[in-house]
Each structure stands twice: as structure tokens, then as C-alpha cells.
């Protein structure tokens, strides 16, 4: 299946544009066209199927299921919900507020906020298609552990005291539930297609930016630079630097996958690559600015600190496993 996209990239770069396969520009253009076609095709298919699934279950029902359960169950449900919602970090914040409004413990809401941008069905499918199921499984397992343990650590500090007062007083928004309609499959199809349009419209530019960065990395970054600065798994500083570099590179897990794909092709260790991916997906400057409107500085610093340490440990762990 994916050979079709490889062929499209080759045709555009080397036949239509007449670029040389041995040139840096040719390699970058081929990578860009191939990944744009591949990722957007997978985006449409997966989001549509998940839209059909969500047409049967309302968000309010999910909140009712989570609220009032034992914390370990509620945390697991929040992480599961985060894992199946293809949101970027900024898009997860409104539902984070909704959880707080529903009086779900703030520590549980952080489990969703951590899991949602890092793990979702779109990212998993893309990782399997581009990097293989082994890397996808490692990434998902690491993300689940980070979300579960990280939210427990945050909860230990009682973050409710740092939620801005106005958040508690927000009147819960009434949502139009497609599930309540009686239009049958046609209505559900319309909802699923609308999900495709809304989500793709929200993230398409970040996908293109991510693919563009990946293409530039793939075509123009010399092997010697990668070997010197990022490809040495034994360098203690490579993983922290990768995490710090990820913060300003805002994207979601879908948009950053092409960057990671190009880095792995250049010899960057899997742990360093996964640490960068997690940092880009879950620690972004726009997300932190939005969160500051919801939580105060101590909670924001705690959130950043816990995830930074977790991502560094993930990077060290996977680099050690692959030595």
C-alpha cells in the first residue's frame, strides 16, 4: 500500500520536476511529497472511522463514567480517552477545562492532558505504517506510563489549589450530541465526515510544517552533524537537549512523526528521537500559554517539570535498551 506513496514522491521529484535522486533537494522533495500523500490519506481514513465510532458515544456519557470511580479506574479511563482523541496539546485544553467543570479531580484531568497529544489512534497508525509496529508499541507503552505516573505525581501536590478561581464557576457548555439524532447512518456519516474536515483543517498546517522539517532534515542535514550532536546514544546531554529543542517546535504527534522518521534515518537513537517526539507533542509553548489562563504558575511549573524529567528518563531508557 505504502509503495504507492513512494512512487508518487519519486514521480513528482524526479520525473515531473526533473530533480536528481542524488541531490539534497531531490531527496527532500521526494520525502515531502511521499509523506504528505501518505499522512493525509491515513488521516482521512482513521479520523472518519473514529468519527463513526464516536457518533455512538457522547462526551457527557464519558464524563459520567469517569466521575465517581476509584482513582485508578478514573485515571485509566482518562488516559484511554486521551489515547483515542486525535487532539494536539492546545486542542486538549478545552476538554481539560470541561473535566474540571465536571468536578473530576485535577490530577485525573492531567492524565488526559498528558496522554491526548502524545497518543492517539492516528499517530499509532502512522507510526506503524512509517516506522513499524515495534517502535509504535514502544512509544505507546512509554506514553501510557508517563501519563499514569506523571499524573499521580502531579496529584500528590494537590493541584486543585492552583486552578484559577473563574474556572470553577464556568457554566458547563451544552453540547449538541449527534448520538441523540435519529437520522440513522446518513447522520452518522455526516458527523464522521465533519470530524475529518474539522480536525484536518485544525492540524493540516502543522502536518505540513512537520513534514517540511522532516524533509529538510532528511535532505539537507549532513550525516556528520547528526553523528556529532545527536546520534551518540552515549552522550548524556543528547536526550535533555532533544527535550529542550522540542518545546518551541509546536506540533502534534501526527505532525512530528515525519521529523522523527528523518532523524531515525540519519542514525539518531530511538530514545533520543522518542524523547523529542514526546516533548514536541506534549510540551508546547502555545499549550503552556493557554494553560496559564487555567492554572497558576506553580501548577504550570510542576506540569513542565514532571514531563521534562519523564521524557528524559524515557530517552535514556530506550537508548540503554538499544546499546
What does this 3D model show about the protein?
The chain has 323 residues and is mostly helical. The protein is built from 16 helices and no strands. The chain has helices at residues 3-16, 24-54, 59-66, 71-83, 89-101, 106-118, 121-131, 133-156, 165-168, 184-220, 223-229, 238-246, 253-265, 270-282, 285-292, 297-321. The longest helix has 37 residues, at 184-220. It is globular and about 60 Å long. The two termini are 33 Å apart.
Order of secondary-structure elements = HHHHHHHHHHHHHHHH
Shape: globular
Question: Helical proportion?
Answer: over 70%
Q: Biggest β-sheet, characterized?
A: none
Residue stretches low in confidence (pLDDT < 50, at least 5 long) are 170-181
Mean pLDDT: 76
Supply the helix-strand structural class.
mainly alpha
Instruction: Work out the strand percent.
Output: under 5%
The total of beta strands comes to 0
Number of helices: 16
User: What is the end-to-end distance?
Assistant: 33 Å
Rg, Å, rounded: 20 Å
